Amino acid sequence: MPKLPLPPPENGMVVRFNYQWLDSPKSTKDRPACIMLVISEPDPRVGEGEPVEEILRVVYLAISSQPPRSDQEAVEMPEDVARKLGLRPPCWVVVSECNIQFWPHDVSKIPHTDDWVYGKITPGFFNKLKTEFQKEMTRRKGAIITLNDLPARSPRPPPPRPPEPGPENTDA
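Predicted structure:
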């Protein structure tokens, strides 16, 4: 089976992500997470005089097999959506907190596969999540964990060197 490349992030895509809960000092395990929003912004690693490059920052919502705690808000995923993604119902998408991270930092392959992506949730369910997430972010203010770990920057090829002086490059 050929290895699948990591695709670019899209709203509604479900990936495996090293999610950090709001009440935890660090991430404890990779889990399915729904990409709620993809933001393109100038790459802060670009040096002065270099061409401007874009980098992607992604907003993730955790997907859990456990019902939400009393201090969390979550939306239960419809069974057909969970099964289509290869998840075992019941599942909940937590909308009362999120992680924001540069793409593709903290994304991993789905265990026992070469796949990066579980799939995409349906547009109707995505819209429901978006509405509930917006309500919670307005109500809670501060339930956002911004991780800001920049992925390694691709090496740039060195600029071309001027030709060395030699018999073919001199005026003789």
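Summary: Helices lie at 79-84, 123-140.
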